[in-house]
Amino acid sequence: MTADDDFHPDENFPDDHPDNSDSDSQKAAATKFPSFDAWFETWLSAIIARKLSSSAGKNRVFCPRWFEHPEVVVRLHALWRAWEAASAADDGAAMSGWWVHHADPQLRTMLDAEHGPMYLCSRDSHQKTPPIRLNLAQAPAGWFDELND
C-alpha cells in the first residue's frame, strides 16, 4: 500500500468491520459478561468499596454520573477487557495480576479527587470536567512534519 492508495478498512482490517463473521452473540459467549456496562453494574460496582468524599477535590471521589466522564468510561472499558482476558486465562495468577497491574492503578487515577478525571465532582454531585484540549494552544503548521516522515 502506498500513500496514494485509497484506504479501505474492510479489506485491511476485516475483524474490526461490523459485517465480520463473528456475531454479537458469539462475542458475548466468549466473555463472562455480555457487555461492559453489565460487568460494571453487576460486578465491579458491587465489589469496590472505598471511602468517598462528599467534597470535590478531597480524598477520593466517584461521580454518580461517572458515565458522563469520557476518560472514566474509557478506563473502565479497558479494565473490563483486561478482566475478561484474565478470567479466561489458564494462569491461576491472572486475576491477581489484573488487580495489581490494572485495577489498582486505574482506580487510583480515577478516584483521585485532586487530580483525577472526576476532580470537580463529589460522591453526591456531578460537574462536567473539561478536556485538556480546551486549554491548549494549537501547534504551528508544519511543527510535526519531521515526525510524519
Tally of contiguous helical segments? 5
| Strand element count | 0
| Major beta sheet summary | none
Radius of gyration: 20 Å
The general outline is globular
Percent range for β-strand residues: under 5%
Helix content: 25-40%
Oligomer: single chain
> What is the N-to-C order of secondary-structure elements (H for helix, E for strand)?
HHHHH
Alpha-beta content class: mainly alpha
- Measured between the Cα atoms of the first and last residue, the distance is 16 Å
Chain-averaged pLDDT? 83
Low-confidence stretches: 1-21
Polypeptide structure, described:
The chain is an all-alpha fold and 149 residues long. The longest helix is centred in the middle third of the chain and has 19 residues. The radius of gyration is 20 Å and the shape is globular.
Describe what is shown at a glance.
The protein has 149 residues and is mainly alpha-helical. The chain has helices at residues 9-12, 24-29, 36-47, 70-88, 94-111. 40% of the residues lie in helices and 0% in strands.
